[in-house]
Amino acid sequence: MTITVDMKTAIAMAKRHLQELTEGEEIQNVGLEEISYDDKTERWEVLLGYSRPWDTYKEVPSGAAPNAFGGIPTVTRTQRTFKYIELDKDGNLVSFKGKR
């Protein structure tokens, strides 16, 4: 078994594949959540988290009272999406799936 792609390179390649596969979705806040290498299958499994513009919403905190101007304060939240990106030992994309 010879791994031709090291961990740092696998992460960079997974991020590049994510950008290519979600082209036009304006993904942002991409971050590494997990990475592992399976010796049996000779594959990297990289879990990346990210957000998209339509995943942002406002909510009223529990117990919120009107402010001095009569408005109710809101908090902006951003939901994150998580995807597993599986690469072979050479960094080629094998699969792209939602978090289990």
- Terminal Cα separation, in Å? 28 Å
Number-wise, the strands total: 6
| Proportion of helical residues | 10-25%
Assign an overall shape. Answer: elongated
Assembly state (oligomeric): single chain
Number of helices: 1
Numbering strands along the chain, what is their spatial order in the largest sheet? 1-2-5-6
Q: Which class best fits the helix and strand makeup?
A: alpha+beta
Mean pLDDT: 88
The ordered H/E elements are HEEEEEE
Rg (C-alpha, Å): 19 Å
Largest sheet: 4 strands, antiparallel
Stretches with pLDDT under 50, minimum 5 residues: none
Beta-strand fraction estimate: 35-45%
A few lines on this structure:
The protein has 100 residues and is α+β, with helices and mostly antiparallel strands. It has one helix at residues 7-21, and strands spanning 28-38, 43-51, 56-59, 75-78, 81-88, 93-98.
Name the features.
100 residues; alpha+beta; two-stranded antiparallel sheet; 6 strands
What features would you describe in this structure?
The protein is of the alpha+beta class and 100 residues long. Helix content is 15%, strand content 42%. It has one helix spanning 7-21, and strands at residues 28-38, 43-51, 56-59, 75-78, 81-88, 93-98. The strands form 2 sheets. It has a 4-stranded antiparallel β-sheet, covered by helices on one side. The relative contact order is 0.24.
Layout of SSEs?
Elements: H1 7-21, E1 28-38, E2 43-51, E3 56-59, E4 75-78, E5 81-88, E6 93-98
Antiparallel strand pairs: 1-2, 2-5, 3-4, 5-6
